[in-house]
Amino acid sequence: MGQYIDDVIDARDLAYEHAARAGGSDRADRMELEALLGRLAEFGDGVELRAQECAEVAVLLANPTVRDSVLALATGAQARAAERMWVELARALPDPERADAAALVAFSAYVRGDGPFVGVALGVALESNPRHRLSDLLDQALQAGLRPEAVRGLADTGYEIAARLGVVLPPPGPTE
After folding, report:
1. The whole model's pTM is what?
2. pLDDT tens across 39-71, in order?
3. What are the boundaries of each domain within the chain?
4. How far apart are CA 61 and CA 164, in angstroms?
5. Do residues 40 and 81 touch, judged by C-beta distance below 8 A?
6. Vertex 161 angle, CA 58 and 88, to 5°
7. Residue 96, preceding peptide bond in cis (omega within 30° of 0)
């Protein structure tokens, strides 16, 4: 898996630089967010992620703008598919790449009110990368006893980031 990740990083860096030069960092971030959403749509249709695709999604999630945007998915129609994909990635990826996926699992579980699963996912994320900021933030919220409704505001931030990039995410509401 490590070689796949290294290859994807090299290709991603070139593509990102090209997109950023052509239209700024927002354009490059939009390209990456749309690529991740495309992978999610395929995954939701039942296509399993191969090692190369896991590496691609891991590299996309390493972009904090993309990762923070997809927090919004935990509150909408794609919540279950997204969480299933995050779980598969957290199982398949090596450290420290698994931290982003595990943090997204934790956020999804937190929004659903599944505290024990939040704790397990945060344990994985923080073991994978002890300095992972989103995981640390969620862990502090969990330790402070914040209710899911209080943490759900991070999803709103995800919607705001996506809107700024010109990407429309499924609206919040009933999950699949």
Report:
1. 0.93
2. 999 998 888 899 999 999 999 999 999 999 999
3. 2-164
4. 18
5. yes
6. 25
7. yes
